[in-house]
Design goal:
The C terminus is likely disordered. The longest helix is centred in the middle third of the chain and has 16 residues. The chain is globular and about 60 Å long. Strands 1, 2, 3, 4, 10, 11, 12, 13, 14, 17, 18 and 19 form a twelve-stranded mixed β-sheet that branches. By secondary structure, the chain is of the alpha+beta class. Helices cover 18% and strands 30% of the residues.
């Protein structure tokens, strides 16, 4: 390891995506801004990111294509303490059941802690959503299972499918109509498997296309398959949805970077170029990761004097092509 910064991935605590960074006990945040530059170089090998805020005791090397970014032991520990594992039946918190829409015919039902608001929907890249109900954990979990079976919707939607439709979404009214139709079907199940302890919430479709920047960004054409030692990813951030950052790269088009692939890598900023003073670059890596690079991530999107050169030198695959190689270095 070279002692550089490790990325903790994208978070959506508010209305803008953030990249978390760690180096030893130091923690920093880069708030990203659409239109700004973002870039880094991967160094060495990819290591397990640990679990539940703890460092992997083995320092295990993990595959570059793993979106989990954990070794088998840390993955087991992380799963054992998650809500999805159903090991927290006595959790006193209030949960919400939601209906999330990602594209035509791509809908799922899920649950999230009420105190998190819509952060979970932003983290998943839900294009539109509506709340369905609120109540205790086990009532929310039971409702989730009933609705999945009754509505015929899956518990997971692959990110490859989400990316394939982002560049050709139907209009806002069509998106809202599909969510409303499914909400109506769910509403009719009240009293037929819907737990009495779960309060139904009224239909209110929240559309996140503008929040993600998808209404003004070109359609993505390729996606990063994995990082490699010495590999560079740099471009202009034009949109973001869930863990995906959409980067406009000169000579390539819009490339999707799944930030789950960059956790566990030792990252350094890439050489920068001057930009007009009015630009608001999105910071990629804290300044001391490399000399003469982008500004330090301090938790605010401040104007920086330079942004990374537009360049991608990692394996890419074409979006919607079933994993066909689209470019290598």
């Amino acid at each position: 390891m070279s002692g550089g910064w490790w990325c903790a991935g994208v978070r959506w605590p508010g209305q803008a995506p953030e990249l978390g960074w760690s180096r030893g006990g130091d923690r920093r945040v880069s708030v990203l801004a659409y239109g700004g530059g973002l870039g880094f170089r991967a160094l060495g090998e990819r290591h397990c990111k640990g679990a539940r805020g703890n460092v992997c005791p083995l320092g295990a090397v993990v595959p570059g294509r793993s979106t989990g970014g954990r070794c088998a032991e840390c993955a087991r520990l992380d799963r054992a303490h998650s809500v999805a594992a159903d090991t927290m039946a006595d959790d006193p918190r209030t949960y919400r059941v939601y209906l999330a829409w990602f594209g035509p015919g791509m809908v799922k039902v899920g649950i999230t802690g009420e105190e998190r608001g819509a952060a979970r929907l932003r983290e998943q890249g839900a294009v539109a959503f509506s709340w369905l109900g609120r109540g205790p954990l086990m009532a929310a979990r039971r409702t989730e299972e009933v609705l999945r079976a009754a509505l015929g919707v899956p518990d997971r939607i692959p990110y490859a499918g989400k990316r394939a439709v982002r560049g050709r979404l139907p209009g806002r009214e069509e998106r809202a109509a599909e969510v409303a139709e499914l909400y109506g079907r769910a509403e009719r199940l009240e009293g037929r498997g819907w737990p009495e302890s779960l309060e139904r919430l009224p239909l209110e479709v929240v559309d996140q296309v503008a929040l993600f920047g998808l209404d003004r960004a070109p359609a993505p054409v390729r996606v990063v398959r994995e990082l490699v030692d010495g590999g560079v990813v740099a471009g202009r951030l034009v949109a973001a949805a869930g863990p995906d950052l959409h980067l406009a790269v000169d000579g390539v088009g819009v490339v999707v970077l799944d930030t789950r692939l960059i956790t566990g890598w030792d990252l350094a900023a890439v050489p920068a170029k001057a930009v007009p003073a009015k630009a608001v670059p999105a910071k990629a890596v804290p300044a001391d990761a490399a000399e003469g690079t982008a500004a330090e991530g301090t938790g605010t999107a401040e104007t920086a004097p330079a942004v990374a050169e537009s360049d991608v030198r990692v394996p890419l695959i074409d979006i919607g092509s079933g994993g066909v190689q689209g470019g290598l270095f």
